[in-house]
Amino acid sequence: MTGKLNGSCFYNLSYFYVDCAVNTWRSSCGTMPERLTEMLMDTWTPLIILWITLLPSIYMAPMNQSQILPSGSSTELKRLTEEQRVLNRSKRGWVWNQMFVLEEFSGPEPILVGRLHTDLDPGSSKIKYILSGDGAGTIFVINDKTGDIHAMKRLDREEKAEYTLTAQAVDRDTNKPLEPPSEFIIKVQDINDNAPEFVDGPYHATVPEMSVVGTFVTKVTATDADDPVYGNSAKLVYSILEGQPYFSIEPHTAIIKTALPNMDREAKEEYFVVIQAKDMGGHMGGLSGTTTVTITLTDVNDNPPKFAQSLYHFSVMEDVALGEPIGRVKANDLDIGENAKSSYDIIEGDGMDIFEITTDVQTQDGIIRVRKPLDFETKKSYTLKVEAANVHIDPRFISGGPFKDTATVKIVVEDADEPPVFSSPTYLLEVHENAAINSVIGQVTAHDPDVSSSPIRFSIDRHTDLERQFNINAEDGKITLATPLDRETNMWHNITIVATETRNHSQVSRVPVAIKVLDVNDNAPEFASEHEAFLCENGKPGQVIQIVSAIDKDDPKNGHYFLYSLLPEMVNNPNFTIKKNEGCRAPDSLSLLRPKPDVIHQVFIQLDRPT
């Protein structure tokens, strides 16, 4: 082609040799497995390319036909030039191949990349070749006479994959361009010089225990800096170096899955897996990189709670406070977290209403507490059956149940030195106000509930009997009168009786005693007020002169009933009469009537009530 870059000859030649080499080998060996063929291609291709690159005698043919010109053959060059001038009309232009150079190649001499040639060059020294562009003069140097291009430095495709340069042919004497400048590319040919890397490693993953085979665990990814397009330098295959037979990895997707069923976290919780990524499709000679994956089995509820022992023994004092814990039971669960939580309950026994059991959320213990008071003298022991059951049940493992366990709890009640117990929580006594001194007005009783049954001594709390009106017999609890009583002064007396054990004075009980003073008729009636009556001289017979009333400090059960009468010296007085006022019962009253209005008398009235 004239005036254009032709990039077919050099590289086409390389593939020609590769194809010939492989096909020749195939012909000689017969049919071989496809995998082996691919391995040979990956191994021989870069070597043949390297060999072709080093051939210093290969360069570009003129015109449209790609040819290889032997180095230093000027006679042959002239002959071909003359033939081309005859066969082709006078066309201008460059004739070359697209150029390649292997990366990482270094030797004692600069590497010949290729040769530039123009169809205007008759083989004389009139043509001067000039190179410009990426790396011209530093990385790539051209022989201005022959057009040979050499790489002066070791190249790395991963740093720069291709270089764009410009070539021009000028007259050596005048430096005038003989052709317009033409652009071409030198590509750095990849070799497998980079191993795969796991940039995100090491990895950590989790999978539930007891998972079925093939359960997804995680996915890893390796990268290879080599050319993913050319050859198999970046074609990765994954495998497991450590971690079998528990896990497997898909060779091309790098997905890690479980390989064994029913892996039990309680047997082994953590697995250390080593993953390898190998390029060249995993073939021999490929580079490899490794990473680690720490796989942790997460817990599922596949274990029931189990009591550490089938029988528990506890003892408790009978005077323990309500709500106090008396013991703990523990059902162990091999699971963890929510799967290990259990609830406790009393399901049988003779103390289901006496005791209760709750769960300690921190330790998962069952705490037994007292709900009702205990009495050693009434019942000395209890037997309970407690149950521990998982709170959260996984339906996948329900067939492995039941997820609960039971244990027996025996509780012994121990005797405590209890204070005396009165026969009644309160006492009410009655006594007439005219009762004699030292007369017995009532009795309290108490006993020691303990088996030892200590004797009891009684006393009065004098803070409740400051006037010391009562005494008590310390032996039998009989209460006697110490001073006279007056119902009209104090109708009620409230005292406290103290019972103390003679063997242990710290054991004391108290009981309130209310004493009611009963009334006797020991007070005479009294007029409610003094009266002075006045009567006009023209008063009419039957006229009410005065109404008088009476009161009595006593309090008879049926109420007061008074009898009214005039003084004895006035009984026969015809001028005045006195009678009961039937319209009023309390206080009783009387009326004075004047039968003769012309006489005025002063009346004195004596009042009395029936006995």
Automatic annotation (TrEMBL):
<dbReference type="GO" id="GO:0043083">
    <property type="term" value="C:synaptic cleft"/>
</dbReference>
<keyword id="KW-0732">Signal</keyword>
<dbReference type="GO" id="GO:0034332">
    <property type="term" value="P:adherens junction organization"/>
</dbReference>
<dbReference type="InterPro" id="IPR015919">
    <property type="entry name" value="Cadherin-like_sf"/>
</dbReference>
<dbReference type="GO" id="GO:0007043">
    <property type="term" value="P:cell-cell junction assembly"/>
</dbReference>
<dbReference type="GO" id="GO:0005509">
    <property type="term" value="F:calcium ion binding"/>
</dbReference>
<dbReference type="GO" id="GO:0005912">
    <property type="term" value="C:adherens junction"/>
</dbReference>
<keyword id="KW-0479">Metal-binding</keyword>
<keyword id="KW-1133">Transmembrane helix</keyword>
<keyword id="KW-0812">Transmembrane</keyword>
<dbReference type="GO" id="GO:0016342">
    <property type="term" value="C:catenin complex"/>
</dbReference>
<keyword id="KW-1003">Cell membrane</keyword>
<dbReference type="GO" id="GO:0045296">
    <property type="term" value="F:cadherin binding"/>
</dbReference>
<feature type="domain" description="Cadherin">
    <location>
        <begin position="527"/>
        <end position="583"/>
    </location>
</feature>
<keyword id="KW-0325">Glycoprotein</keyword>
<keyword id="KW-0130">Cell adhesion</keyword>
<protein>
    <submittedName>
        <fullName>Cadherin 8</fullName>
    </submittedName>
</protein>
<dbReference type="GO" id="GO:0016477">
    <property type="term" value="P:cell migration"/>
</dbReference>
<feature type="domain" description="Cadherin">
    <location>
        <begin position="199"/>
        <end position="307"/>
    </location>
</feature>
<dbReference type="GO" id="GO:0043679">
    <property type="term" value="C:axon terminus"/>
</dbReference>
<keyword id="KW-0106">Calcium</keyword>
<dbReference type="GO" id="GO:0044331">
    <property type="term" value="P:cell-cell adhesion mediated by cadherin"/>
</dbReference>
<feature type="domain" description="Cadherin">
    <location>
        <begin position="118"/>
        <end position="198"/>
    </location>
</feature>
<dbReference type="InterPro" id="IPR020894">
    <property type="entry name" value="Cadherin_CS"/>
</dbReference>
<dbReference type="GO" id="GO:0008013">
    <property type="term" value="F:beta-catenin binding"/>
</dbReference>
<feature type="domain" description="Cadherin">
    <location>
        <begin position="308"/>
        <end position="422"/>
    </location>
</feature>
<keyword id="KW-0472">Membrane</keyword>
<feature type="domain" description="Cadherin">
    <location>
        <begin position="423"/>
        <end position="527"/>
    </location>
</feature>
<keyword id="KW-0677">Repeat</keyword>
<dbReference type="Pfam" id="PF00028">
    <property type="entry name" value="Cadherin"/>
</dbReference>
<dbReference type="InterPro" id="IPR002126">
    <property type="entry name" value="Cadherin-like_dom"/>
</dbReference>
<dbReference type="InterPro" id="IPR039808">
    <property type="entry name" value="Cadherin"/>
</dbReference>
<dbReference type="GO" id="GO:0016339">
    <property type="term" value="P:calcium-dependent cell-cell adhesion via plasma membrane cell adhesion molecules"/>
</dbReference>
<dbReference type="GO" id="GO:0007156">
    <property type="term" value="P:homophilic cell adhesion via plasma membrane adhesion molecules"/>
</dbReference>
<dbReference type="GO" id="GO:0000902">
    <property type="term" value="P:cell morphogenesis"/>
</dbReference>
